[in-house]
Amino acid sequence: MSDVRAATTALLADRPALADALDTLVEVDRSQDTWTFDDAPVDSGVFGELVGRGIVVESGDGYVLADRQAVRAALGDPDADPSDADGAAVSLRDRVPSLSVSSRAAWFLAASLLVVVALRVFVFPRVFRAGHVVLLGNDPYYYRYLVSAMQQSGAGLLDVPARITRGEPLLVVVLVGATRLLGGSASAAAHVTAWYPVVAAVVTAVACYLLATTLSHDRRVGITAVLVLAVLPVHAYRTALGFGDHHALDLVWLSLTVLAAVRLLPGAGVAVSDDSGWRRHLPWGCVLAGSVAAQAHSWNAAPLLFVPLVVYAVARSAALADGESPLADLPLAAALTAGGVLAVAGHVLLGWQSPVIVAPPLLAGLGVGAAALIAAGVRRVGVPSWTAPVLTTASGVAAFAVVATIDPSFVAELQQEGARFVGQSGSSIVETKSLFSTTYGLFAGPIFFYGTALLFALPAGAWAVYTGVARSRPRWLLTGCYGTVLFAFAVTQVRFSGELSVFVAVFAAVAFVYFLSVVDLADPPLDFSARSSDRERVRSLAIPTRSRALRIGVAFLLVGGLGAVMTPLRTNTLVQSDDAYHAATHVEAALNAPDWTDDTTYVFSRWSRNRLYNWFGSGNSRSYWYARSNYDDFLRSTTPGKWNDRLQDRAAFVVFDTNSVPDGATGTIGSALTAWGSGLAHYRAVWAGDAKTVYRVVPGATVTGTAASNASVTLTHEGTVSGQAVTYTRTTTAAANGTYTVTVAYPGAYSVSTGGTVTVPAAAVGNGTTVSA
C-alpha cells in the first residue's frame, strides 16, 4: 500500500487540483468492478499519468485502482485503513451510511446550507424581543406549554402528558430532552422550541442533498436541490426560527426515510457481491427502521406518509426488467418491517399512538415483501408480468378483509380516522384547505407555497415515474411515487405541502440542471447523458467562469427567484405583529402584578392567536377550542347580557381586533367594541394599539340617580387609553318614578346628560358596587 499511497501523495503535491477528480474516481472504483476511461473524470493526459505512476491498473477489459485504500489515505480520508495491504477489506466508509463529498462539494454544500439558515433566521429580531421569546403562529405555543408542563412536574423523559400520547409524543420528548441537556430552565425550553425548526431545516437539507446526489449521481443536482429547498416558501416558513410546530421534525424523518429507502434499493449497473451486500444494507436498514418508527410517533397523520411505499410496491412488481431479481426489494421490506415492529413496540411499551397509527409501517413492510415474492413467483411460473400487480393488489385486499374479520375495532377506528381526514378538508382551518383552494387563488396557491419550482418539478416527477417503470430504475420509481402521492395529498389538504417540498426540491433541481444543458450552460445530468458509461459515476462540481456563473445565477431565478421573494412574505404572515406582542405583554404584566387577586386568567380572543395571549398571560396555552367555537358568535351577538353571564367567571380579558368586525355591522358586541365598549357594561379598554384593543372583563359599577319620568339619560366618560382619546357612553331610560340605574365599565368622571357629573371609583368598577349620582 505504501507505494501507491506515496505515488498518489506525490501526484497531489505536484497537482493539488486533481484531489476532487481522484475523490470521484474512488467512488467510481467502489461502485463498479471495473470501469473504462470514459468513466474517469480526467483527460487522457492525466489518465496516462495515473497509469504510469501505478495508481490505476488494467483489469480484464477495464481498469481499477491499484489500491483504493491507499488512494483514500493519500486524499486525507480518516476512514481509510492503512493496514489493508491489498484493498480487499471493507473500510469504515463502506460500512457506514454515507456518501463521499469532495472538498469542493463540501464548500458548495456549506454555502448552500448558509442560504437555508439565512432564509429561516431573518425573523430573529421579531422572535427575540426584550427578553421574550415570541414564537411564530399559534400552535407552537401548544408544544411550549407541554414542555413546560413536563418540566414543572418533573416527569420522566418518556412520560409525556396523556393528551399528547396520540398526537406528537416524540416531538415533545425531543424538545424536553434538548431542554434538559441545556440545563432545563424555562429560558432553555423557550430557546429550544424556537431554534429546533432551523436545526431540522439543516438536517433535512443535507438529507435532500444526499437523496438528489444518490438518484442523479450528480453533485450539481444535489447542490441545486438544497438551494431550491432553501427558497421554497412552504419549507422555509415551516422551519423558520420560532415556528416550533411538529412539521419541522416530520420533514426530518420523512427525508431520512426516503434517503435510506433509496439507498437500500439497487442502483442501475451497480454490482454488489453477495458477501458484502449485508454490510451495505445493514447501516441504511437501521436508519430506515429508526426513522420509520420515529415518523409514526411524531404525527398522528403519519400513516398517510407510508402510502407511497405501497404504491411503489405495486408499480415495482410490474416494472421488472429481464434478468432483474424481484428479491432485490427484500432489504427494503425487511427494514420497513423492522421499523413497524419498533413503532408497535412504542405503542405497547409506552402507550403512544393507537394501533391505527403504528400498524401502517409494519403493513407497508409486509406489503413490499409480499409484492417482491409475488413478482418472483410470477416470473418463475412464466405467466404474463401484468398478473404481478393484480395479485399484489388482490393479496392486500384479502389481508385487509382478514384483519377486518379478526379485529373489527381496528377497521372501525381506521374508518373514523379517514372520515375525520376527509371531513376536515375545506374547513376554516387554513391547513385543511386544498392547494388549489380559492382562498389562495386557483392558480396562485401553488405559487404561494412553492414559487415557480413546482412548474419545474411536475414534469421531472412524471419523468421519474416513467423512467422508474420503463427503464426499471427502482430508486427513481420510489421517489416518483412519493412525489405523486404527496402531491395528491397536498391537493386535498395543504398540510402536506411541506412534506411535498422535499420532492419538489429534488425534481426541480433535476429539471433545472437539464435546462442548463439545453441552453448550453452545463453538461446534462448523468441520467440524460448520451454515454451509458457516464450514468453510474458521480459527476463532480466545477467552478464556472465568472460570466457563465452569472448566466447560471440569472437562470436560477426562473426556478427559485419568485420563491425567494415569497419566502419572507409568507414567513412574515406568521410573525406576531407589534400589536399582538404588546397586547400579550400587557396581559402578562397585569396578571403578574401584585394587586391581581382574581383566579380568572383566561384571555378570550380570535383563535388564531389565542395560544399566544394565554401563554403570556398564564402559561396555559393548551387549547384554543373555546375561542374557536365562541369568539365569532360573541362579536356577532346582539345580546350582551347573555355573554356577560358566560364570560364573568371564565375570561379575564378580551383581545379585540378592529379589523374583525364587518363594515356596516351595528347593534352587535363587535360594533360596540369598536367604540371603546360604548353601550356595554362590562368591557373596559385597558390597552390599545393600532388595530387591537385589550378589554378587561369587569363587573362594572352601578350608577343610580334621578331624572324626569321616562327620560333618556346618557352618561359620558372622557379619558385616555395608551395615549388614545376614549369616549365611552352608556344610555338608559328613567323609570316612571324618575329613578334610573345604569352599569358602567370605566372608573373616573362621567357627565350626565340631565345635568351634573358623577365620579366612579376604580374599586366600584372592580367590585360591582353602587355609586349614587
Automatic annotation (TrEMBL):
Transmembrane segments annotated in the record for this chain: 105-123, 194-212, 221-240, 252-272, 330-350, 356-376, 388-406, 447-469, 476-496, 502-522, 549-569
GO cellular component: a single term: membrane
Keywords for this protein: Glycosyltransferase, Membrane, Transferase, Transmembrane, Transmembrane helix
Name listed for the protein in its UniProt record: Dolichyl-diphosphooligosaccharide--protein glycosyltransferase
GO molecular function: dolichyl-diphosphooligosaccharide-protein glycotransferase activity
Annotated EC: 2.4.99.18
Span of domain Oligosaccharyl transferase STT3 N-terminal: 131-263
The organism's place on the tree of life at top rank: Archaea
Keyword Translocase: no
Pfam families: STT3
Species for this entry: Halobacterium salinarum
